[in-house]
């Protein structure tokens, strides 16, 4: 089964992922942690949550990698599979083709994808668009809040001064000095107001 848990910036998606992974590990189940290569904030293999939880990914998927060709997936094809469950962080960065491969592999595996639904312009990421098409279970990770106290639904790119940026390339990883990402409610995202 293919799952997509989407949430806005600041909704603790990665923390949820790591806690759920821990729950499976506690039961002695074999879990693989996967991340796309594009997210390098905390090191190539590190999956890192803002609340402080972190873990090392077993597999780092590049944009041109076939998911099927990863050792994990090869293992999953045989009867003595070493992995039973797969958790994917920042799944919005997967390609359309990779999500289609995941959907196929989810015949044998439970695959839990966590990621953003839309980018800072309010447009789908390729990975999230494909997951919304193909995932069998789609749920929101709640908890993200706008500064006004309303539910945050929109991912917002802001500069060092906190001004909202509405144009630019889709993928620009935050380094917390030049730009960063916050969640805003729809009204404050649309009006470009990032603080009180
Ligand atoms: Zn607001």
Structure description:
The strands form 3 sheets. This protein has a 6-stranded parallel β-sheet, sandwiched between helices. The protein is globular and about 50 Å long. The longest helix is centred in the N-terminal third of the chain and has 14 residues, at 13-26. The mean pLDDT is 90. The chain contains 5 helices and 11 strands; from the N terminus they run βαββββαβαβαββββα. It has helices spanning 13-26, 71-77, 96-105, 126-134, 186-191, and strands at residues 2-6, 31-36, 46-48, 54-56, 59-61, 85-88, 110-115, 137-140, 154-159, 164-165, 179-184. By secondary structure, the protein is an alpha/beta fold. Helix 3 packs parallel to helix 4. It folds into 2 domains: 2-140, P-loop containing nucleotide triphosphate hydrolases (Rossmann fold, 3-Layer(aba) Sandwich), CATH 3.40.50; 154-191, no CATH class. The chain binds zinc ion. Residues 146, 148, 150, 184-185, 187-188 line the site of zinc ion.
Summarize this structure briefly.
The protein is 23% helix and 24% strand. The chain has helices spanning 13-26, 71-77, 96-105, 126-134, 186-191, and strands at 2-6, 31-36, 46-48, 54-56, 59-61, 85-88, 110-115, 137-140, 154-159, 164-165, 179-184. Helix 3 (96-105) packs parallel to helix 4.
């Amino acid at each position: 089964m293919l799952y997509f848990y989407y949430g806005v910036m600041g909704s603790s998606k990665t923390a949820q992922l790591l806690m759920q992974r821990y729950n499976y590990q506690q039961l002695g189940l074999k879990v693989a942690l996967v991340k796309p290569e594009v997210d390098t904030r905390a090191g190539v293999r590190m999956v890192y949550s803002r609340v402080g939880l972190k873990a090392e990914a077993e597999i780092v998927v590049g944009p041109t990698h076939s998911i099927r060709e990863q050792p994990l997936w090869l293992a999953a094809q045989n009867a003595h599979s070493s992995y039973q469950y797969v958790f994917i962080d920042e799944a919005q960065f997967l390609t359309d083709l990779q999500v289609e491969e995941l959907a196929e592999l989810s015949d044998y595996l439970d695959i839990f994808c966590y990621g953003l639904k839309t980018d800072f312009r309010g447009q789908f990421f390729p990975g999230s668009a494909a997951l919304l098409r193909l995932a069998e279970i789609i749920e929101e990770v709640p908890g993200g809040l706008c500064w006004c106290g309303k539910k945050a639904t929109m991912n917002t790119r802001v500069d060092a001064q906190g001004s909202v940026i509405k144009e630019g390339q889709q993928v620009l990883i935050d380094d917390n000095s030049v730009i960063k990402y916050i969640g805003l409610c729809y009204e404050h995202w649309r009006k470009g107001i990032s603080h009180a």
